[in-house]
Design goal:
The protein has helices spanning about 10-25, 75-90, 95-100, 105-110, 115-125, 130-140, 140-160, 170-175, 175-190, 195-210, 220-240, 245-260, 270-275, 285-300, 305-325, 330-340, 345-355, 360-375, 380-395, 400-410, 415-420, 425-440, 450-455, 460-470, 475-480, 485-505, 505-525, 525-540, 545-550, and strands at about 25-30, 35-45, 45-55, 60-65. With about 550 residues, it is mainly alpha-helical. Among the domains are: about 5-110, no CATH class; about 480-550, no CATH class.
Length: about 550
Amino acid sequence: MNIRNFETRISEVILQRGQEYFKGGHVVELFEITDTNWQAEVEGTDTYVVDVKLNEVGEIIDSCCDCPYDSDSYCKHEVAVFYALQGMFNDTKRKSVKQKKPTLPQLLEAKKKEELIELILDLALNNTDIYKELLFEVSQQENEIDSAEALILHHISMAKTKGFIKWDRVPKALKGVDVTLGRVREKLEDSQYEMAIHLSLLCLKHSVELLNVMDHSSGETESGIDDSLASIEFAIGVGMGNWNHEEKEIIFAKIVDEALDKKFNSWSEYRFELLTACIHFCTEAKFEDELNAVLESFLGLASSESWNNKSEREKIKDIQFQMILQKKDTEAIERFLFDNLTNSNMREKAILYSFEKKEYEKALKLSIEGEQVDKSRPGIVKKWKNYEYESYQYLGDKKAMREIAFTMVLQGYSGYYEKIKCLYLENEWQEVVDELLLAFDEKKYYPIVYLTILIEENRNRRLLKYCQESHYSILSYYKYLLNDYFAEVTSIFEDYIREKAHAATNRKDYQQVCEIIRRFQQACGQSSAISLIDGLKKEYDRRPAFLDELRKV
């Protein structure tokens, strides 16, 4: 995307807002940091910083803004800066001016070391953010963790208002975490895995604590947590071969101690991800025993039948299973699976294990039992039904497959419509369709798969009846009915439009009515639409906003 014609690559709404910001003078500062890097301050609900990287021909290489706008596309602040830069690039005089004006790196290179130190100190002493970041960047390894924590806490403190962090202050609160995670990536690249773990644990600790005092609807905090956990898991995985037993003990203890902290009581998914990372240590019996003891203690705490406790037990058992899986002991794997069938994850693994061993009767038994055990959890029951169907498929029991598919279609699972259709000969199928449709008539409402069947099987008389009972559905299904039921489609459209017009109370509602009229005109012709519009004008002659919108149709 080039700065000279970026407008073609950005949505109209954001483009318009950005242009309004630019014309309104919201781009208050624009700096050329280097030949290719630009930074701007844009005033909005807050003052935001936009960084743009361009190449020599004006291609936008990178762009970012520290506003809380959560999207993969550009924000209005970036677009405002693009307009400012576009004006400069379109100025033919810019090239000569640019050559005369030295960039910041050039100016700094001309300074003596003592002058640079004095300049940096002046900046740092007048800006706490700069001071903390500089201290972190230049700190020695023994002080690195303390400096990182000071930086993280500083940015959190600066973002708080009365002990709470509002959604638009979240990026500022996480600035210290982001900088520290950048250092973590450097440590990983330099194979400093132990320090990467310590810094990641620091980021994880403060990010989880933040969840209780901030609006985290944007998901930015969770992103920092995920990055921290991923870095810890990676560092352990590649670092194990570099550490002696004593170093492993220190790191293992540090991670387990962190996982035991009470701050994870409300965010147990992160606790168990930390403990999952410790599986790497379990090639040694000592660590395996210690991790198992920790997991068993949590199993004891999660003994009640609440949903949260059941979920935690499943996660714990999953970690224990991964520990056993690592040892590649077939008998131990099978024993663990079949000893823990009350855990739905383990039951599923046992079914898949049975499929792998071609023990289809066993897989069938496990599936049917699962339906009874989890009968209060419809989503899980569906999974067991799928496996039951698959078991019968392996066993070649077409009659049982037909029964399951029929039931699942009636429950609204559209994927089973194609499955059941494949189980019958062409001359048998229409009778089955009739049975299905009659069974649907007994239900309180028709699921989407019912309409799919009507369309696929050309049951247009039923589809018309459905639209007559649910007028709004004519917008979706008129094209299937027009050839055979033109008059009826016209009547349904007219009834639906009159209903919407009667309920309309403001211009936005009127615009929606007129949009439906346009669809009606497209479907049933201009004369039908004109006749309806004339009737509406007479009926609503005291609604000038509605009349105005009707004239635009």
